[in-house]
What does this fold into?
Amino acid sequence: MRAVVFQGKEQVAVGEVPPPSIQHPLDALVRVHLAGICGSDLHLYHGKIPLPPGSVLGHEFVGQVEAVGEGLVDLKPSDWVVGPFHVACGTCRYCRRGQFNLCERGGVYGYGPMFGNLQGAQAELLRVPFAQVNLRKLPPGLAPERALFAGDILSTAYGGLLNGRFQPGDRVAVIGAGPVGLMAVEAALALGASKVMVIDKVEERLRRAEALGAIPIHAERENPVRRARAETEDEGPDLVLEAVGGPATLALALEMVRPGGRVSAVGVDNAPTFPFPLASALVKDISFHIGLANVHRHIDSVLNLLASGKLQPERIVSHRLPLEEAPQGYALFDRKEALKVLLEVRR
Ligand code: NAD
Ligand code: ZN
Ligand code: ZN
It folds into this structure.
């Protein structure tokens, strides 16, 4: 089958790989129609997270069931499905607590041996383990292009807001106007934020955030902390969602948040430590949450919001490319010349 294959730092190719097969009664095979390129794929692309050359990339997908293991009762071939970017077993002690992102048998598609060694989703076929836990049928009438966002970045942003104990009326600052940050803008406004500010360095992305209803703040042309205070009656945001990753933007989030406020970090970085502003955080009485997304927890709510039209994340899609053009898609997204790239695997 055709798939996007990692070849080495900043090198991806589209080539032939052996197709997956049903290995367990709870496996399903999904024929992928659309696959997204995510900011998290860029960490692999840059060699920041090790991935063996020859691995199939990707973890955002929507498609149709091709085949099911004999243990699956609710899924049948041709069902339209979407699934979380990470896999959970549904039965371990973490899954039983609803902490699917900590599953003892979990993993992330296309993220290599450190994350369960699962084949990636930028491919014609994807093997989904524990498919009764890791796939959702699309609600009737929901377009696949919109549904795809429930499997990762929209649910990540939505869960990031809830991890920051989002409340209607909150004044929210989102650091990073990449796809994840823009999903946070859309979700925060839909959930009733009174104001959303967005901080980035890329003018085009700030304009996109503004079009979604956010106040754009340029990270370098003005002082984001001062501006965010000015926008919140000299307090600072109630909730800051960090959607970049790394020490600099975490420090910015902790500095910006108002006393008594909350910081929720979803950005990924491989820095082992970062300097936590202990004394000021203590005095300010802040809450800080960081973690990988727990998509299973939110995907059903998010699918309902998508089906109702309250969320329209497909508005950020800048490029729909045939699978064969994946290398250009990665390069464009890496240079921030594309905002969100979807690969048309089945046309
Ligand atoms: P992206 O790379 O497209 O977006 C990052 C944005 O941050 C860009 O617009 C960039 O211009 C901006 N940026 C960089 N440095 C900045 C700075 N100093 N100040 C302000 N803005 C800055 O990626 P994305 O797809 O939007 O993903 C964002 C992050 O979320 C990535 O780290 C990704 O790995 C992570 N992510 C995490 C999870 C999770 O489970 N926690 C899930 C999905 C994505
Ligand atoms: Zn992702
Ligand atoms: Zn589990």
The chain is about 30% helix and 25% strand. The mean pLDDT is 97. The first helix runs from residue 39 to 45. The chain has two domains: 2-152+294-344, 155-290.
